[in-house]
Amino acid sequence: MSNELHDLLGKGWKKQPFIKRAWLRWSIYAGFVAYLVAAFATIEVNWARVYEGLDRGAAFVMAFTRPDFVSRAGDIWTGMAESIVMTVAASVVGIAISIPIGLGAARNIAPLPVYLICRGIVAISRALQEIIVAILLVAIFGFGPLAGFLTLSFATIGFLSKLLAEDIESMDRAQAEAIRASGARWMQWINYGVQPQVMPRLIGLSMYRLDINFRESAILGLVGAGGIGATLNTAFDRYEYDTAAAILILIIVIVMALEYLSGVIRARVQ
Amino acid sequence: MPVLEKGDTQIWRRRTQGQALTHWAAWLIGTAVFVYCWQQISEATTWFFVWDAPRIAGDIWTRATPPRWEYIAQLGRPIWDTLNIATLGTLMALVMAVPVAFLAARNTTPSKLFIRPVALLIIVSTRSINSLIWALLLIAIIGPGVFAGVIAIAIRSIGFCAKLLYEAIEEIDHAQVEAITATGASRWQVMAYGIVPQILPAFAGIAVFRWDINIRESTVLGLVGAGGIGLQLQSSLNVLAWPQVSLILLVILAFVVLSEWVSAKVRGAII
Fold this sequence. Notes:
The structure holds 2 protein chains of 2 kinds. By secondary structure, chain A is mostly helical. Helix content of chain A is 79%, strand content 0%. In chain A, α4 (73-104) crosses α10 (228-237), α5 packs across α7 (145-169) and α8 (173-181) packs across α9 (186-220). By secondary structure, chain B is mainly alpha-helical. Chain B folds into 2 domains: 3-63, no CATH class; 74-270, MetI-like (MetI-like fold). In chain B, β1 and β2 form a beta hairpin. In chain B, α8 (174-182) runs antiparallel to α9 (187-218) and α9 runs antiparallel to α11. The two termini of chain B are 46 Å apart. Chain A: InterPro entries: MetI-like, MetI-like_sf, PhnE/PtxC.
């Protein structure tokens, strides 16, 4: 029996700590507690106001049991249609633009200057929040779904190009090489050597982005960029919780349907 | 393999006749839907404003530059609030997400028939509604302020964290769980010594990942009155103080980039 094991015999076993170095562990714990104390000290909670609001909270929860789809049916329908229209158009345009940018942002395909420009576009698009972009675009293009459409397209570019570029960078070189060896032009090389390898993932990501775009389109109306958000905001402002509940239920149902659809499509292409 | 016979030469084709036809029809329908959507957008747009847009954009740019640097002294507290909204919101979400994830995972749920669907419903409904909408709702219920922001972020994050966590739980190595069970451990001991150590790295990764997203989301919660730097952004926009707006946007950008750097560092250390 080895010495090490001999030493351990007869002693109790203790769970391994998550962070090995003791000083680091304790300083992280201490810093965390200090932060929590400071954070809680600066948050002002008006408990009387919260208590008063509980009735309204209960009213809202109850509204989910009897959502009112009817009395504002016209507004809900217009808003939903606008949201869906914005989502579809923005997804199509965003995907169409992000494919060339994704190709440009893959280091194994694009030359360095193109790579840097495309990566720059991706970084800008990812760093800016959708709602902030929407505020600026509403200021520039005026109220309406055009600003929302442009916002969602812009956000799609950053998301999809980055993931597409990463997928292209990790593709199998041998297949692409084989196509090139057959004397293919650049377009043919992309079309027959690269595209088939990344297509399943591209379709999956596009479906996922469609889903995200719909969810985002629900809030763009808050800043005047079109969609169901404006209707929802009005419903909240007028304390019409049953209408708000109806809208939220519709959003949840559509998101669930999109998720299910994208699951089916992804299962088929992969 | 689909082949086209032309005289006595055979030409290779990618699709059969039927496949090509369905493919073509799918493209046609897709294009038609897109054109219809574009028409709807186009009808709702005042094109005069759009043609005028370059001038307006230039105008805003000249108003917004240079940023009003002195204003940064007033942004310390809002940034601290934003950080608190994101961090405390993430913590609350994690506390609530763990039980939901255990109830939703196929291998740990007490009842596949009744409890699992409820857990999945919680995950889907909290995930599909944006934190800004939760904030709107909570402001109506508990009044404007940082607290509403914290709760909004927390609710929005439950579904996200629970979904990733229950997927991690479903992928655990079953042999370790069985080994702990074989020692005569109780249900809770099996959980503490057989399951939790396996999902702890995933849990830490999810926490940091969500914290990073929440930093981004909490910067805009103030637009609807839920505290943080968005409040300053909203009030500056309302009085058209563009130099302040540009400064706030720069601060938000720096804050987001910083948080991304921190989360990348922490995730690198964990994995």
